[in-house]
Structure formats: C-alpha cells, structure tokens
Amino acid sequence: MDYSVCLLLLLSTVSSVSTGQFPTAQMVKEWVDQMQNDLIALTDTASGLQDLIKIYKTHKAHFSVETNNARNLVATAAGNIEKLLVKRSQALKRLATEAEKFQMEHEWRADSEFDKIVYYNAKDDLNQTEKKNRYVPDDFDVDPDFKRLVSYNTTAVHIPTDIYEGSTIILNELNWTEALEDVFRKNKEEDPSLLWQVFGSATGLARYYPASPWIDLSNSANKIDLYDVRRRPWYIQGAASPKDMLILVDASGSVSGLTLKLIRTSVSKMLETLSDDDYVNVVSFNEKASHAACFENLVQANVRNKRILKDAVQNIVAKGITNYKGGFELAFEQLAQMNVSRANCNKIIMLFTDGGEERAEEIFEKYNPKQAVRIFTFSVGQHNYDKGPIQWMACANKGYYYEIPSIGAIRINTQEYLDVLGRPMVRADKRAKQVQWTNVYLDALELGLVITGTLPVFNKTKTGSKKSQNHLILGVMAIDVSLDDIKRLTPRFTFGPNGYYFAIDPNGYVLLHPNLQPLTAKFHEPVTLDFLDAEIENEIKVEMRKKMIDGQTGNYTIFSLVKSQDERYIDQGHRMYSFAPVKGTDYSLALVLPEYSMHYIRATIGDTITQAKFSESLLADKFDEYGYTFIAPRVYCKDLKPPDKNKNNTEFLMEFNNYIDTKTPNNPMCNVELVNRLLLDAGITSDLIKLWKQTELQLGVLARFVATDGGITRVYPKSAGLYWKEEAETYESSFYKRSLDNDLYIFTPTPYLKKENTSDDSILVSRAVNLNVDGITLKPAVAGVKLDISAWMARFINTTQRMNCNDEICGCQRNDVYVDCVILDDGGFIVMSNRDEYIDQIGSFFGVIDPALMRSLNDSLFTYKQTYDYQSLCDPKRDSKAAAGLRSVYVVSYISQTLTRTHTQPTTHTHLVIHTCTLTHACSHILISRHTLALHQHKDRCKCTCSHFDLQLLPHTFSNGHTHTRTCTNTSRGSPGNHKSVCGADEKRSRGDGESVRVGVEVTVTGLGGLACSANTPSDVEKGHCLSSLIKRTTCGETMQIVRQTLVRRRRICLKIFKRIALPVALGRADTRGRDSCSCCRR
C-alpha cells in the first residue's frame, strides 16, 4: 500500500436493517483502491516530486555528494570535547592549587572587623545597599554568553539565608577567598570562552566570577532564597567519595508527634546530600525492623529513587517499643550484601532517634568489629532521654554525633557528616585530586543546562604542637561547561534531521541527546534521563549502553523503533550507532545515522554570481512569485543571531538577506558550507515553484509545499503561507522527519488540541524525494500538498455511492444513519469522516473517540507500544474540600464490531449524557453516542473536585435474547438522604452518609456502547428505566470492576483518562495499562 492510512467502517445497527446489507469486504477494498489511486495521481502531479528529482540532477554541477564516515566523525567529535574539558580542567586545577595556598597564608583572626572587609553581596539590591562594607559594581552590562548582567572586574559572594554573615568564620572566609579574584580573571583572559568559575566553601559561602546579581525571587513560590552551595549537585559530588548509606529510623511510640515530624524532614534533607554515585535505603524499626519503601536492597540515589524514599518516610507511623538490635541487624545485613550494585567505597549507617538506654554492643562486635562501617547518630527533638548510648555508638564506630532539637538545625546538621567523610580524601591528597564531571543539571544563575567540573580544595594548614595537617576540606572548586558549547562541537547539519549525536555519563544518563528536553527541570536536582528512557529500548541498546559505560569503542547497525518529533507516532527504521569514549572523562559519545544519511549534499557554489542569483528568490517582495518562504533559524554567521521561536521568521529572513548582501556569503564570520547549502536549496526550490505556477491548483488542494535539509521551506501560493504552522527548522519538523523514515506518503492532520480554531479542516500529505546520484540514494527534500478535508470527504462519498440503491445502506453517505466511515492514519488519528461530529475532531486520537474499538484495532491492525515521558511531572494531588459525592465516573464502552460479526439483531442507540460539576463550573462533559466515547474538556478547566452529577437517559432497546430486572434512575446531589427516585418501583434506600444501597440486582453488561442496563422488559427500558446504580460515588485510585453478579454496596468505579492510548475495556475486565488519572479535573 502506498498510503499510511486505514479505512474503518463502523456499523450502528438498527433492528430493521439486515446485516446482509452491510458493505462487503470486497466492496470496501474497491472504495479504498479507488481513493488511493485518486490521491496518488493528485499528489504525484500537484507536488511535483518527479520534477524535483529532475531539477536536482540539472543542478548537479552545483553540488557534490560526500560520505559521512561515522567512526571518524565520532572520534573527531570526542577528541574535540576532550580538548574542551581538558582546558577547563587545567583552569580548575590552577584555582584549587592557588586556593589552598591562599588559605595557608591567611592569618586567622578572631577579632576581624566587619566594616573593614568589603565585598559585593549578590543578593543586594542593585540600586542601593545600606551596609558600609558592601558595594555594588557600577559596570554591570548584559553579556551575550551569560544572557544577564555581569561585571568582569570583581567577584560576587552568596551567603545562605540561615547563616550569619557577620560570624568570625564567614569573615575569615571572605578575607582569604578575595585573593581568588585575580586567578579567576587570569583564567578568563587565557580562555575567553570560560563561563562561571565558583568556589563553594564548606561554611556555605560561595564566591563566583564574573560577578552577577542573584536570581530574582520575587516571583517564586515562597520568595525566600533557600540556595546553599553545599546542596548543589556539583558540590555534593566533589566533596566526598561515593558511599553506601543505610538510613535507620526509630519508629517507636516515643518519637510520635513533633519528633517524628523532625525525623521525617531530617531524613528528606539527608537524602538530598546524596548524588547518583551513591547507594541508599531506609529502614524503620520498633520491635521489628522493616524497609520503609519497596526496595529490599540498596538502590542508586538518583532523583526517582530518592523521591520514592522521601514519600515512604512520610508514611512511617510511630508505635511500639525501641529495639536497636533488630534495626542495626537489618542495616548491617543490607550493607553486607554483595550480589547487588553498590558504591563499594564508604559504608555508613545514619541513625535517627530520640535516644535510648541500649548500646547494642554485641551487634557491633558481631557485624562491625573493624569499624568498616561508620555510624552517625542523630538525637532528634527536645527530650530528657540519656544521650550517652547513641553518642557511644557514633564514637565507637568512627562516626559522629549530632543533635537536631528543632527544625532550624536540620539543614546544617544533616550535611556536616560530609566533613568527616572528606578526611580520607585530604590524607590521600594528590590521589584524591581528580577532576570529576557531573551529569546534567540546571544552572542556578540561569545559564541553562550545564555540566560542571569539580575539584576538592583541602585545608593544608598545620595545627597543634606537632604541626600536623587538620584533614579538613575547605570546599569545592567548580567550572561550568554549557551544553550549548558541547553541541557546537557536535555539528549535525550533514546528518539529516534523523541523524544525531548523544553522550552518556557513567550512570547511563544522557548529557547530550535530542530527546533531552526537561521542561520541568528544577535547579536543585540533576537531570537524570537514562539512555534507555530517551529512546525506545531493545536488547541491543542495553548491551550498547553497557559497553559505552565501560569505555569501549564499537558499532551497531540495528532495526529500531523511533518516536516522532511530536511524540504522536512510532516509525521503524535502520540506524547505525558508532560510539567512542571521551578520554580524560567518564563520558562516552555516540553518533546515530539512518541509512539514507550515510551520504550528504555539499554545495559548491563559491562564486558570488551564482550565490546572488539563488538568493534573489529569498527576498520578501518575491513571495508572490516564489511562494511564502521560511528559512531554518540556524547560526549561519557568528554575528547574525538566529531568532527566538516566538520571533517572526520573515524578519530573520530579511536580516539574513541584508547580511549576505552587504558582507557576502564567503564572509569569514560565516559557516560557508551552511550558507551555500541554504542558497543552493533556494535556487532548486525556486525552479520547482516555476513549474507549479504552470498548473492550477486542483479541487481539494489548498496549497503545495516543499522543504529541504538545507533549511528552506516554500509554501505556494503565498496566501497559504500566512497560515503555515509547521516548524521553520526542518530538523525539528515532525512531518519532515517522518517522511524521511517512510517510503510512502505521510498524512499529518493538525493535532486536535493544538488547533487555534476548529475550522482548520486540512491535512498535510508529504513524501521524501528519493534522489539517486551515481548509485547513491539521498533524501535531500520533502514535498507535498495541503488537502481540504471536506472536499476530499465529499469526493470519497461519491466514490462509495451505490447506483440505483434501494437499501438502507448505499455507501458512506454524509451523516448516514446506519454507517460511520472513518479514515485513520498510521498512528490512529482521525484523517477523514462522513460524520460532521467527527470533522470537528480531525487530528484527535481515535482511542479517545472510541477507546474500546481502538483496543480491538490494537489487537489486529495496529501495534500497541507503551512509552513514558520521564522528563515530565504529574500535577500535584489536591486535597478535596468538597462534600461526599462523585469524583469521577467510569463509563464502559464495548466493542461494537462484535455485534456485526456475531450477526446480533441490531438495536437503536443509547444517548447518555453525564455532567460532572464543581460548584458553578462544569469540569468535564462525557458523551456516549452509539459506540462512541468522547471526552470534551471545557476551556475554563475546573480546578477542584466534582461534588455532584446528573444522569439522563434516552430510550434504549436491547437486542433479543436478554433478560433484565427492573431498577431506578437516581439523581444524586451529594447531600445525605437526598436521593430522588424517578420510577417509584423498587426504590433504593438512603443511608445517613449519602450512599445508596442496592442488593439483589442482576447486572448484564451488554448493548451497543457497553451500557449496563436492566429492566423487566425492553418496554421498561424504552420508558427510560436504566441502571444508574452502577455509577457510584468514588474516590480516585480505587479499583474499577465490571461484573455479572449481584451488586453490593459501596461499588467503586473510576474514570481513567489516557493520553494517546485507547481506553482498553472488554466485557468482564478492565485493562489499566498506561498512565492514567482519576481526577475529572485533570488538565
């Protein structure tokens, strides 16, 4: 088949119609073949695909075909990244060495006069400062690299809010760190591309260069600066060695109340001091010890696992008596396990308790005779218990004892253990002085996604009579590298839109990948997207990931599933993966190329005459002649800044034209290959437009378009370009990338949720150009047409019309009473329909329109592949303030095709309308019409829990052969004892809690649309007597059940809303695969 579409005929059966009149399979095939032939003939002619191939060949003198050697390319790029990071490492080592020297030379003063130490506090208002010892630089200017105000003549200081800046320790830190300013400045002079240089002190002070005002917190949630450099991912990684940590929580009855709250908060803050190189678990104990979460072993301390442990700690309940022996026994056993992944460096037990009389000496003698496991103890809360035993536990096991009497002591005392763990590093000195590179995180000063090189700074001051080193860490030195800097070393514009570089760290997390787009990144958490989550996983990728982590070099050619740019489709394609380590780091780099990107076009139009000729068609006043033209927003020249996404592309096009007109494309500031490729494509596509102008647009065609790898997109006529909504950057365009991966025409309806108005009933039909040059196949462009859906559906209706037909079913007539004709694309999105109610939903997923039928199609025609977006965050759950009442409703939709296949006597359709409302705002509207389930969210989107619902049922007739019992239809308003029966007989009784009870009603799940109805006779149902007791008050998260047995009180039913996934319900069971939400107010 040449088209990625499928035709589905859905029969709404009626008792007076024989299934023999339903169109046969052969008849449907004839309709499909006719429409396919019509579309092929139209699009081949209108798009000019074959003409475009000829035009490329006539321009063969203006380009050459080059080879992408994947192994050489990845080795070169890895080498360039290595050079960048080595250069940054040298600057880092210079800073750490000088810092240790300055601190040794500094004379500690306990009487430092506050007024004499002058510095710039980054949190001071730029317009004024009231304190004499502070100043605000007067040379702030917006820097293009930092995109914010900076001053290169000084440094800035940040001191955490909960630390007194006038303390003796802070004053001495301010004094000696001031000398770092000259080193910062020298590094910048030697390497102008350097970004932030930071020293984070163990005292909490941070000094950074260049100076810049702190982030504006006026629009933040709490408007309080909670930044502490010691909590940053890079500081945590640089300040200590990897560790295996077991957090032991006292859950006995004595810690109830405020103490338990302090313990919960303390454990959460402790977890924040761990990095991805660490492993952790939480155990709670009273008489018995148990795991707080579902983890039975130590797990990697990544963002996801720490969040699970934090949630588990909040659920710990205080009861029973304290048994330290049982708790420590399980803790030591966890740390002793050798068959699981772990850090294999420091081993730590963190005990949080209110105190006790037991020392548990025999446990330590048995499990820790050589003190291989350090034990830190925390006395939490204000109490009169003896602290001696837990102090002894820490001191006897190379640990430390801390007190947390109130919430203000938590942040400080849960991070001071790092000083203790840093002592072995100080003793190791040069062996521990290795630059470490972090995984990706969001810079606190709005630089975007960065990686950071870190190096610990040791206190080498000699103390005591023997002048021995004090073995303390002064802090961590850090230098940032923006991901944009790394991307510039991995150019992609010769690979085509579906070729790309990616890089991973030792944990398998990507630091470079086109799917790394954390829209909800938080600056205090690292961005942890595993390579296997960034792509659709398979066994070969698992093996490849392991080899990359091990620092190996290799190549794989695999058949892989690929998600589209807009994440609406999954395609198949061959990909070559080549990877190599980035020497001097723990990173590994890979290059991915599709088969058609093994070669690329290189423009050879170096003469200015040809360049000027091709560029003429890019002029804005030529749009009438050459169609509306867009150019990809790329960095063509260093001094020609590409526009933001929100900026008008035509303005950028005009700026580009002016630039090359005055400075010529061969300007040394320009990427000549990139500019020439753009101009070449401009010339080639302008020739195509000239051919288009020779023929009129055919009926049903709204526009013609062509897009190229070089970054040109033309839409003809100009008027159609005014409403063009596709990406100007072809490398980011979903229809463009999908067309390259499929050797057939691709249909792209406008996503239903992104339509600006429902009158946009058009669809893009596109196909890639297969250009053969000297036996090499290239795909340098995509061409297609924009179709008018209404016109083409009318044409299809005429195709299906049966001449001289006297039957009820004579084809796919518009708004036919008996037949629904729906055309879906290869992703299950509606392309065309004969029903007006579906026309308004062109581009919506059919699984939302008819989830049960989509489920059936997943078992036959479509392939179901479940994926998750690990970079998004779910909306936080809101506590309900509504009275007892309905929160959500689950309405069953049964597969209507079964009625046709089994030749069941048809029935008239049911029309059921359920409104779930919150006070005065309607939060959702669920409509069941025939076999169809549709969910229409209101524009104003309610924000609270629904408190009542209305149930209205129109006449329904069941198929023959079913027996039913009688029941009532009720209207619930959510208030106790206010259930009103509308049918008098067999009424329900109300309970004081507002819940109705029914016993002994037989439920038959049947009927078109899967509505569960019951009545003594079909005539009763015609009068409107249909079961409403199946729809009960519910709370979210409770299990949905569909039964053929006696109804019992407190039945729980919940509406599952799936994103792009069919609502999979079949008779007698509910399939809850996929992400779901029970909230009717879900956005």
TrEMBL record:
The lineage of its organism: Eukaryota, Metazoa, Chordata, Craniata, Vertebrata. Keywords: Calcium, Calcium channel, Calcium transport, Disulfide bond, Glycoprotein, Ion channel, Ion transport, Membrane, Metal-binding, Signal, Transmembrane, Transmembrane helix, Transport, Voltage-gated channel. The keyword Calcium applies. Its main location: membrane. One of its GO terms (cellular component) is L-type voltage-gated calcium channel complex. The keyword Membrane applies. Residues 985-996 have a biased composition (Basic and acidic residues). This is Calcium channel, voltage-dependent, alpha 2/delta subunit 1a. Residues 965-975 have a biased composition (Polar residues). It is found in: Membrane. Transmembrane segments: none annotated. The gene is LOC118289276. Residues 1-20 form the signal peptide. CDD domains: PDC2_MCP_like. One of its GO terms (molecular function) is voltage-gated calcium channel activity. Belongs to the calcium channel subunit alpha-2/delta family. It is a single-pass type I membrane protein. Residues 244-421 form the VWFA domain. Residues 965-996 are annotated as: Disordered. It holds the Pfam family VWA.
